Amino acid sequence: MTNFKNLMLGAVATTMLLVGAAKADDDVKLRLNWMYYGSHAGFALGKVKGFYKDAGINLDIRSGNGSGSAHRLVANGDSDFSYGSCGSMVNLASQGAALISVAVIDAMGADAVLVRPDAGITKISDLKGKKLLTTSNAGVNTFFPIVLSTAGLSPSDITLTNVPDGALVSSYLQGAGETVGMLGGIDDKPAEIKKNGGAAPVIFPYSSYGVNQIGYCIVARKDMVAKNPDLVKRFVQATIKSYKAAEANPDAAIAAIGDIVGGTMNEDEGKAQARAVLDVTLSLLYSAANKDRTLGLNVPSDWESMVTLMKKYNDLDPKVDAKQFYTNDFVK
Questions:
Q1: What pairing do the DSSP bridges indicate for beta strands 216-221 and 99-106?
Q2: What is the pTM for the complete model shown?
Q3: How far is CA 61 from CA 36, 82, 163, 182, in A?
Q4: Which parts of the sequence belong to the SsuA/THI5-like domain (predicted)?
Q5: Most buried residue, 66, 178, 233, 328, by CB count within 10 Å?
Q6: Which distant-in-sequence residues (6+ apart) come within 8 Å of 293 by Cβ?
Q7: Which residues of 283-301 are buried (b: 16+ CB within 10 A; e: fewer)?
Q8: What residue ranges of the chain have pLDDT lower than 50?
Q9: CA geometry: angle at 141 spanning 135 and 146, to 5°?
């Protein structure tokens, strides 16, 4: 009887061990700012190489419709993390969305005004009375008023026309609605213009007009950070590992996007465009203030600089503290 009891206890213990070993990975939904483009190659590489799987994460990467939309989908619980404009996140958080940056990928902004070379625009003040294209919810809209102010212009001097992101470059090339250019990123739009047969645009980077902004953050809800810090840590660490791998082997990262997206991303032209975009992103991973080149770090002085600008030009509440918008608890 004693032997039978011992056998039963052993069977129960073995079953419990097997159940523990078979514990399912955590399902995590990452919301991108837009459809896949080269800047997202690090996430793709991490998924294909199994870095997220190794961290116990079953990663679902979804396209977005602009940074503002992506961050809102995290705030309302549709998605767990978003990749998008840090400035856009600050705007939403200051309006009550319980969001926080848990890591920074693009430490420097790539926002710019891009103008067709045949438009006769040689300096940004030449844009007075002109029309530009942009996309609703795009992070690039956040700091445009600062650019105008630095150039001695006001928002009323420029007419912005919203079009869907998928129609932005084609509308730009056609000069739709008598527009002369568009707001966009120097990471992806010049390569997209070239791919569609356009000449290299005249570029006015926001950074040349007093906009020292942080680019793109990994954003999470504050309640998830408080209730499930282990999952946030594993996701951030897997993402940092993925982008380090993309730095070491960008061609492998581009191939990973092709594996996930397929279609033109697997063709030579698509790969070349994605690689050009990724190269710009990889050049923006570390700001000058990130002396130790810690990938993912929310650099306090960069946040302070950006939030100060937004208080001055974007009507951000002067009482907010830059520290409330980020945490480095999961980066190191």
A1: antiparallel
A2: 0.84
A3: 9, 10, 24, 28
A4: 39-253
A5: 66
A6: 286
A7: ebbbbeebeeebbbbbbee
A8: 1-2, 17, 19-20
A9: 155
